[in-house]
């Protein structure tokens, strides 16, 4: 036996006189209250609904909105119970709560996205850092709309969200908005995979991005950094941080992979590993083990092997340290570990490397992503301009 009712908790009232409203579910005599995060006056709550005032437009609208929320919550709960009855399955309170948290096809996308993110984190499908990044997008969506029902998604939704990000959230950069759109689209795709029926907004909106803000080092700057490293005049901590950064420059590894470097990755003349970012896909990367990279690893073994390779200080401190080193050397770009990966990609291509090989070295499945890492120098552009100028050069 099961019952569903909306109730108001009269035992505690806020300063404005309102009390919290809950969805009460009873299954096999077990009672569970689900907070709906809405509040109303206890004396004006009758038969599970807010009594709509006859005057005061603000309170009239608020009462109507709350009643809609209560109706949606009860409908979602009823749908779960009905589905189990149709399948002739029993349902416990714990199972009900799990289903309710995950949501159903007629539910609010915000509820779905939040529960799906938690599920993917719990099942190690995404890392904690990815979860935190996606949480930023979820919070933007919540600030934009209190509810985003699946059945109200349409061809204008992504355009309207982009307008909010630009004007209200004041995210002026294209790449900043790109990240929020990407995460929104990711969980819409997840919902499609879960057989939720809706109109996909990104069938009508193209997510745009531009070349990132990270700029690679010039070849002569990388040489200067290498010479600074060889002199060993930096503090122990700074020397360690620079060592990890240089490994990024010579291998193209991400910061997260440098911090988890293992000697098991050494396979003859190559480093072979599965990048943390794409670990769930089983993607393997095979990078040449150059003399420079091997020298850095040997030095790391000599100094920091007790704490784990390239983990002498925290990730944030490593970036702060190399940034300070770059500033002191008056380099052309602020340093961080991502700059090391950008430097690897750009210098490789400047040495007439092949884009499809670069994609393999960076762990990309296509060359499209790799292209964003390659920054064409102004000097190279001038050289190409001279080639164009020779189009009409007569012998």
In short:
With 395 residues, this protein is mainly alpha-helical. The protein has helices at 57-86, 93-102, 109-122, 128-144, 157-167, 174-193, 219-231, 236-251, 255-258, 291-304, 315-328, 337-350, 355-362, 367-371, 378-389, and strands spanning 2-8, 19-27, 30-40, 45-46, 49-50, 266-267, 270-273, 285-288.
Written description of the protein model:
The protein has 395 residues and is mostly helical. The protein has helices at residues 57-86, 93-102, 109-122, 128-144, 157-167, 174-193, 219-231, 236-251, 255-258, 291-304, 315-328, 337-350, 355-362, 367-371, 378-389, and strands at 2-8, 19-27, 30-40, 45-46, 49-50, 266-267, 270-273, 285-288. The protein has a 3-stranded antiparallel beta sheet, covered by helices on one side. A hairpin with a 2-residue loop joins strand 4 (45-46) and strand 5. Helix 8 packs across helix 11 and helix 8 (236-251) runs parallel beside helix 12 (337-350). The radius of gyration is 28 Å and the shape is elongated.
Spatial arrangement of strands, main beta sheet: 1-2-3
Helix/strand-derived category reads: mainly alpha
**Alpha carbon gap, first and last residue:** 95 Å
Topology as H/E string?
EEEEEHHHHHHHHHEEEHHHHHH
Rg from Cα: 28 Å
**Into which percentage range does the β-strand content fall?**
5-15%
Number of helices: 15
Which residue ranges are poorly predicted, with pLDDT under 50 across at least 5 consecutive positions?
Answer: none
Q: What's the rounded overall pLDDT mean?
A: 87
Query: How would a textbook summarize the main sheet?
Result: 3 strands, antiparallel
- Count of strand segments: 8
- Which term fits the overall shape? elongated
Helix fraction by DSSP (H/I, runs of at least 4)? 40-55%
């Amino acid at each position: 036996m099961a019952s569903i009712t909306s109730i108001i908790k009269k035992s505690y009232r806020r300063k404005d006189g309102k009390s919290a409203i809950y969805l009460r579910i009873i299954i096999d005599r077990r009672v569970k209250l689900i907070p709906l995060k809405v509040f109303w006056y206890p004396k004006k709550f009758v038969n599970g609904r807010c009594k709509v005032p006859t005057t005061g437009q603000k309170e009239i609208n608020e009462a109507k909105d709350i009643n809609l929320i209560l109706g949606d919550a009860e409908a979602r709960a009823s749908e779960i119970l009905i589905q189990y009855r149709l399948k002739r399955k029993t349902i416990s309170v714990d199972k009900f709560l799990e289903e309710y948290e995950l949501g159903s096809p007629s539910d609010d996308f915000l509820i779905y996205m939040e529960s799906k993110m938690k599920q993917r984190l719990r099942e190690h499908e995404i890392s904690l850092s990815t979860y935190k990044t996606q949480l930023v997008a979820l919070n933007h969506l919540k600030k934009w709309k209190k509810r985003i029902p699946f059945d109200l998604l349409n061809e204008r939704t992504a355009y309207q969200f982009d307008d909010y990000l630009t004007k209200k959230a004041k995210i002026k950069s294209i790449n900043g908005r790109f990240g929020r759109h990407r995460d929104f689209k990711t969980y819409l795709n997840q919902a499609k995979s879960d057989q939720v029926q809706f109109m996909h907004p990104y069938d009508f909106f193209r997510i745009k991005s531009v070349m990132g803000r990270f700029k690679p080092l010039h070849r002569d700057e990388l040489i200067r950094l290498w010479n600074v490293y060889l002199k060993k005049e930096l503090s122990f901590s700074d020397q360690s941080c620079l060592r990890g950064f240089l490994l990024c420059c010579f291998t193209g590894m991400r910061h997260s992979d440098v911090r988890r470097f293992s000697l098991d990755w050494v396979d003859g003349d190559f480093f072979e590993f599965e990048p943390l970012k794409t670990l769930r896909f089983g993607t393997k990367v095979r990078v040449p083990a150059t003399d420079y990279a091997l020298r850095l690893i040997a030095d790391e073994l000599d100094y920091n092997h007790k704490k784990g390779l390239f983990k002498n200080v925290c990730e944030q401190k490593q970036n702060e340290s190399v940034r300070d080193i770059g500033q002191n050397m008056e380099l052309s770009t602020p340093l961080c570990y991502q700059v090391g990966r950008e430097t690897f990609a750009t210098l490789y291509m400047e040495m007439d490397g092949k884009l499809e090989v670069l994609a393999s070295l960076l762990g990309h499945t296509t060359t499209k992503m790799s292209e964003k890492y390659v920054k064409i120098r102004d000097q190279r552009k001038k050289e190409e301009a001279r080639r164009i100028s020779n189009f009409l050069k007569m012998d």
